[in-house]
Specification:
The complex is a heterotrimer of chains A (181), B (216) and C (192). Chain B has 7 helices and 5 strands. By secondary structure, chain B is an alpha+beta fold. In chain B, α3 packs across α5. In chain C, strands 1-2-4-3 form a 4-stranded antiparallel beta sheet, covered by helices on one side. Chain C is globular. The chains are: A alpha+beta (181), B alpha+beta (216), C alpha+beta (192). Chain A: It comes from Sordaria brevicollis.
Chain lengths: 181, 216, 192
């Protein structure tokens, strides 16, 4: 099982958390060195990917473009899942839920809470449903470390309060444990 | 039997007072203090605080039992851990009950007592409790006589009303204090209550009255 | 979800998944907060009610996530009546261990009352006898805010207020909940 990336969107449709483990296959051929390297994270709107092999000017530019690309990706993904979810509801009734779709390259898993928090995970095509995994992330990591942290704001504008140490650590451990299985 | 119950704060300030009579043996629960005695009671209780301070460190008990006596007024005390004092003044009826008083000498001693206590009361020097004490000592002879006769008269009776020093009375007052203490804790748990503030809660008053009816 | 199923769910979560805390600690903490707010606002009880509601609202915004996580709710209530059942039999059960009675529905199914037989927040409490608190202060007003905040997160705009309180000498403690509207999904901003 391979997990490429993971996104959380809040009820205001903003991407408040994103994490990339491996470069998604779609980006692999085009600009590999612009993609955050293994296990680095790129927050919404924050540029934290650097590449030591480039000169400062170049790396700064590439960092900005990587950040832009990440945020564009996030917007694209949200647009997709939002439309699919609405379409599914229209066709299958209010209680129907959009769970996942699969392309030749990857599989996208979707989970939405009643409070309109949306979790999206991109994996390889062979992975079984990750709905339960994302539900666990919501219960055990999101609720415990983000919601119950009194210093974290209620609305996570720009991802504020989400990217804390415990959540980060917990998520990493959880995902690493999954992949190892 | 008439009772006067007071709760005294840590600064020797009164927090609560309530007087009532016995409800046992057909008592109507009304206090039978004279108007003067009513005012005197406060001074008696206040003077007992000195005794409380003497006694309170001698044992680890919260219920200090009977600690003081002023003529026919007996004072029992209960201490909370936060040094709030519950004081109960109990006074057997000055005109002793018909059956037991039959064998008594004429009630000259008790009537003399009341008159003398009235005379102490009208003394203007009553503004402080310490002034009560000398007058007490001058009159101890009379009070001794009265208590012995009282004790002799009520020895046969198990009524707590008539016998302030009996074990039954001690136990009844213990129960009364225990119940009041429980309700006191509930009253001060109210978030709007501050330490050493007068307890105005009507609910608490009603519960003290209920405890009085139940045990005394 | 039927009423009996909801109460079974609430019971089960309460027994297995809830960490318990000393009730007196909660009572004293909440009481102290209310007393302090009263002091801070110089016994302007209208303002105190407002502050309590606001605090509750902020709690509700977060508490809903805990509620959803603990109750494993995967789907929305199908109507407001079901919402009421879940609030009373699951929400109040797991967080306060009380189950208020749902009553006094209006015919359009948009308004109901929660009647509290017991209110753990108000144990030991006696309102100040300044002659106004009995008429103006809603001691447990924080609950209104919690409900409002929590329901807003699941896309229901409601209006909540107490209409009676045993602390004031009323026979019951009753909270009125009114559904204002369902909030629509937010749409992503248009790309330029």
């Amino acid at each position: 099982m391979v997990i490429y990336s993971f996104y959380i969107f809040d009820r205001h449709t903003e991407c408040i958390y994103s994490k990339t483990w491996l470069p998604p296959p779609s980006a692999a051929t085009t600009s590999q060195h612009d993609i955050p390297t293994n296990n680095s994270t790129s927050g919404a709107g924050s540029a934290n990917s650097t590449d030591p092999h480039h000169n400062p000017m170049r790396s700064a530019r590439s960092a900005v473009s990587a950040a832009n690309k990440a945020s564009d990706d996030a917007k694209l993904i949200f647009g997709t899942v939002f439309s699919l979810r609405n379409m599914v509801r229209k066709l299958g009734g209010e209680d129907d839920a959009f769970i996942s779709y699969r392309t030749a390259q990857y599989k996208l898993h979707y989970y939405e809470t009643a409070s309109n928090l949306r979790f999206v995970m991109l994996t390889d095509t062979g992975t079984l449903s990750m709905r339960n995994v994302m539900h666990q992330i919501y219960i055990n990591l999101w609720c415990e470390y983000v919601v119950k942290n009194p210093l974290s704001p209620v609305e996570h504008k720009g991802g504020a309060g989400v990217r804390n140490e415990l959540f980060e650590l917990g998520l990493n451990q959880f995902i690493t444990g999954l992949i190892a299985r | 039997m008439s009772y006067y119950f007071a709760i005294i704060g840590t600064q020797d300030n009164p927090l609560f007072e309530y007087d009532f009579g016995t409800s046992k043996q057909g008592g109507d629960g009304m206090a039978r203090f004279t108007e003067q005695a009513r005012q005197l009671n406060q001074f008696i209780i206040h003077s007992s605080l000195d005794i409380v301070e003497e006694v309170q460190w001698t044992n680890g008990q919260m219920y200090l039992k009977l600690i003081d006596r002023f003529f026919t007024s007996y004072i029992s005390c209960f201490l909370t851990a936060s040094n709030i004092k519950f004081l109960l003044l109990h006074q057997p009826p000055t005109t002793t009950s018909s059956s037991s008083s039959a064998g008594l000498p004429p009630s000259s001693s008790s009537s003399a007592l009341t008159s003398s206590s009235t005379s102490t009361l009208v003394q203007p020097s009553h503004s402080s409790s310490s002034s009560v004490l000398p007058s007490l000592s001058t009159l101890t002879g009379g009070s001794n006589a009265s208590t012995t006769t009282l004790g002799g008269a009520t020895r046969t009776s198990t009524s707590i009303a008539a016998n302030p020093t009996s074990p039954q009375t001690e136990e009844a007052i213990r129960n009364f204090f225990a119940e009041v203490y429980e309700n006191y804790v509930k009253a001060i748990m109210s978030p709007f209550y501050k330490t050493n503030m007068e307890i105005r809660s009507p609910v608490f008053r009603a519960r003290v009255a209920a405890a009085g009816r139940k045990y005394l | 979800m039927s009423a009996s199923k909801a109460s079974r769910l609430g019971e089960e979560i309460w027994k297995t998944r809830i960490e318990k805390v000393n009730a007196e600690l909660v009572v004293l903490t909440y009481g102290t907060i209310v007393a302090q707010i009263c002091k801070d606002f110089e016994n302007d009880y209208t303002e105190v009610n407002k502050q309590l509601d606001k605090m509750g609202y902020n709690i509700g915004l977060r508490l809903i996530e805990d509620y959803l996580a603990k109750s494993n709710t995967m789907r929305r209530c199908s109507n407001f009546r079901e919402t009421a059942e879940m609030i009373a039999k699951v929400g109040f059960k797991i967080f306060l261990n009380v189950t208020p009675t749902i009553t006094n529905w209006t015919s359009d199914n948009k308004q109901f009352s929660l009647v509290f037989d017991e209110n753990p927040l108000a144990d030991f409490v006696e309102l100040p006898d300044d002659g106004r608190a009995q008429d103006e202060l809603w001691f447990s007003n924080i609950l209104c805010g919690v409900l409002r905040g929590a329901l807003e997160m699941v896309q229901m705009q409601v209006e909540t207020h107490f209409i009676s309180d045993v602390l004031r000498g009323n026979d019951t403690t009753e909270m009125r909940v009114t559904l204002v509207r369902y909030i629509d999904d937010e749409l992503p901003p248009e790309d330029d």
